[in-house]
Amino acid sequence: MVKDKGSFFISGRRTYADLFLQLDETYKGTNLYFYDLNAKANYRISEKDVLFLSGYFGRDNLGLDGLFGLDWGNATGTLRWNHFVNS
Known about the structure:
By secondary structure, the protein is mainly beta. Helices cover 6% and strands 67% of the residues. The chain has one helix and four strands; from the N terminus they run βαβββ. It has one helix at 17-21; strands at residues 6-14, 30-46, 49-64, 68-83. The protein has a four-stranded antiparallel sheet. A hairpin with a 3-residue loop joins strand 3 (49-64) and strand 4 (68-83).
């Protein structure tokens, strides 16, 4: 982004238990993973105005070879504007 005006970052993570479970014949067809993603950005519009944007997305998945399964997640986003009235 523009130097001294804005910045951003993105982060994410994931479990890899499902990859290791596939190595054992007993657990073939098992789903087991969780992941999420975060993103944030800010931008200084003027000396007194700053805009912030952030978001989150996450998903959890657990299933055992068609016997049962859980699949849920969350997503959210936020837009914020800060205005400084005086110094």
